[in-house]
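Tokenised fold entry reproduced for absentees:

. . .
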Amino acid sequence: MNNEESTIRYEVRGTTAVVTIDRPEVRNAVDGPTATALADSFRRFEADPSLVAAVLTGAPGPDGLGGFCAGADLKAISGGSGNRATPEGDGPLGPTRLALSKPVIAAVEGHAVAGGLELALWCDLRVVASNAVFGVFCRRWGVPLIDGGTVRLPRLIGQSHALDMILTGRPVDGAEAYGMGLANRLVEPGTALEAAVALADSLAQFPQGCLRSDRQSCIEQWELGPGEAMANEFTLGFEALRSGESREGASQFAGGAGRGGSFADE
């Protein structure tokens, strides 16, 4: 992917990939080519063994204010570069059907609405500025949620909160999003990206096999009955045990690390 020509910027910061939607002139709305580039960026991240987490964000506007994503670029449809909408392949916004083995964190400044909300929901965690705005703004135009919004939103915040957002299309600010569990971290405006990268860096300090197996079990249990989910958890966890990570961690604890619940290396 040629970063000079693409509307997606891909940057590596240590063990973290930072993926930025770079269309500030349209509030980072995603057209067809941008959706393809966005999905390809996350495939690139997934294939790179040196990377342990990714951060998804949007470029700030000309006024310097943040903006995550305003959803699909509806104007692009008339120009022939609209988003694909088929039941197979990538989602209309790009990566929303990808099942990655590593976590993705959304750094949300400004608007994350319509398909932009669905992109944020696809991420594992959301670091949100207090002035951020979430909403199903496409409610006004008769455009449905077809990038996982009606599935992921109620699973994250419950049916009642989800239907309130989906049926009314009303804006939800950062503080309310944090209160309902949509935001995992609430930060000052202008700091979401750095806070998200710091969170990604903190995840990189843990044994990755165990972290990824627990994450996978948590995600896969939604499609399984209780017994099947428990069996799947054991199967995935046992692979982490067999890898030697747990033995190494137990040896570190026996040597004095982690006393009193400390996460420090010493």
Observations:
- The mean pLDDT is 90.
- The longest helix spans residues 226-242.
